[in-house]
Amino acid sequence: MQGSTIGGFERLQEYVAYGAFHDSGERFDPPKCHPNTRVAIINRIMDWINGLNEDTREALIMWLYGAPGAGKSAIAQTIAEILHGQQFFLASFFFARNDPQRGVAKWLVTTLAYQLAAKLPPVFRERVALTFEQDPLIVTKSLEAQFMALVREPLLELLHSGFSTNDHIVVIIDGLDECDDPKVQARIIDLSFRLLDSRDLPLKILVASRPEVDISSSFDRKPFSMLARIPLDDDYQSEEDIRHFLADKFNEIKTQHPLRSYIPIDWPDEDSLDTLVQKSSGQFIYSSTVVKYTTSARHRPTHRLEIVLGIQLPKAGDSPFAELDALYRHILMGVEDVDLILQIIGFIILHPPNYVNSVTFIEAFLSLAPGDVQLLMHSLGSLISVENHPYYPNDPEMLTIRILHASLKDYLLDQSRSEEFFLDRLKMHTRYAEICLAHMIELPSLESNSPLQPLPGTTPCTLIYLSFYVLTA
C-alpha cells in the first residue's frame, strides 16, 4: 500500500505548474504591495479570512477586481505571504497569459491539490495519491471531475478522520482573466461555488481579476450570501498610496543611484509628483512603469523624469512606457469593432467633460441604436466605465462614459506609441464636424411651422455646442 501511495503522489507532481505558486522561483520578486500602502484593502481581506467582518462573515468566496495595473496581483501576493507567515493552510495559482502552464486551466486543480497535499495532514495526501492509483487518467477528465476527486473528496475524508482547524484553508486564484479561454474562466467560478455550496468544508477562495464580461456575468449570477466583492476604486484612497509609493521610490533614487550626488535634494517638485499621481488614475502600473524607467543606473534620473513628463523628448528607440503600451495594445487588439470604439473614445477625449459624454447623446450623434455604446464598451470594462451621471443617478438616459486610465489619452494621441490605434486630432475633429453639419442640415427650419425635434439627449445648449463646434473645429 505504501508503494502505491508514493507512486500516486509522484504522478500528481507531473501535472503541477510550480511557477503558479506564490513562492515559486519562476516568479522571483513578484509584485507585492509597497510598505504602508493598500492597508485598508489588506485588512478587509484578512478580516474576511478570519471571520472578523460581520458584513462578509457568511461569504466563502471573495472577488477582488479592478482595472489593469490597479494592483490586484500585488495585493494577492501580499495576502499569500501574510498567510504563509501565519502558518495558514494555503494553496495558490497565479495565472499568466501566454505561459504554457500558467496560462491554461488544465494545470489548476492538480496544482492546488499538490499544495494542499504538501501542507495538510497525511490523510489528504493519501486520498489524492490513491485517486491517481485508481484512475491514472483523472487529469484528462473535466475540471468538475478533478475538483471533486482531488480537492473536495480528500478534504471530506480529512474531516471525517477527525481533523479540525480554527482557521480556514485558503485558496488564492489570481489573474483569472489571464486564463486563455473566457468560457473556462466562468467555469472556474461556477466550480468554486459548487465546491463550497453545501458549506461543509473549512475553505475560502480569493479570486482576483479584471472585471471582464464572462467573469463579471458569472459572479453576478451567484448568491449574495456566498460572495464578497472588493472593487479597487476610489474608496480605498489609492491616490494617497501611489503618492506614498512614488515619494519613497524617488527618495531611494536620491540615496542609492550612482549619480545621486547630481540630484537636487528637492527633486522631484510637488507639481511633478501631482502630475504623476493624476496620470496614474489610481492604477499602480503607471507609477511602477515611471519608477522602473527613472531608476535606470545607466541614465540620469532627472533627465528621464523630464522625458516622462514630456519636458524632454526621448531618443529614438527609447520608450518610457513600453510596458503600459503593451498592455493597452493587448486590450485593444482583443475587441471587435475597434474603429467604432476608437471613434467613441476619441469623441470623449477630444471634448470637454460636459453633457456630450452622455451615452444617449453619443448614440444619437453617431447614429447608433440605443444600447450600442454599452455593448461596445462592455468589452473594454477594464479601461472604460459606463456609469450613472453624478447629478442624475436615477435617470437611465443619463448614463455617462468615464475613462479609467488618464494615461490612455496620452497613448492614443501619440502615434509612435499607439500605431494603428492612433487618434489623429485633425482627422477626428474633421469627422466630428462633418457629423455635426449632417445633423444640423437635418434639423427642421426655424421658419417652418413644424416643431423642433433635436437629437435625442440634447438640449438647446447642446445644439449651440454643435453650431459652435462646426464653426471652430
Automatic annotation (TrEMBL):
It comes from Psilocybe cyanescens. Pfam families: NPHP3_N. Keywords: Repeat. Residues 55-210 form the Nephrocystin 3-like N-terminal domain. InterPro entries: NPHP3-like_N (IPR056884), P-loop_NTPase (IPR027417). The keyword Repressor does not apply. This is Nephrocystin 3-like N-terminal domain-containing protein. The keyword Repeat applies.
